[in-house]
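Hi F.,

I've been meaning to write this up properly since the lab meeting, where we talked about keeping a consistent format for the predictions we share between groups. The idea is simple: the sequence comes first, exactly as it goes in, then the structure tokens exactly as they come out, then a line or two of notes. No screenshots and no reformatting. I'm using this chain as the first example so we have something concrete to point to.
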Amino acid sequence: MVITLGNLPPHVTQEDISDLLRGDARIQKITFNNEGNPNKVTALIDIDIDRFEAQFISKKLNRTFFEDRRIEAYTPLFYGR
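Output, unedited:
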């Protein structure tokens, strides 16, 4: 399953994302994208969980703050790998 975190600062690291998820060992891959606006990074988190848990985590993280930026978190309905 994939969780998307948007509106992250350009210097965000994989360790920062892991910390947001409390070091969840089920994280398989974190990919960063800043297409269109280099000041707003999006993180795609590939994590070994079911849709229900991914949506729960997304709702928990959505609209929380990371370095004075409000995170936009969601679980895409469809995601091509």
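Notes:
DSSP finds two helices and six strands in the chain.
The first strand starts at residue 2 and ends at 8.

If this format works for you, I'll send the rest the same way.

G.
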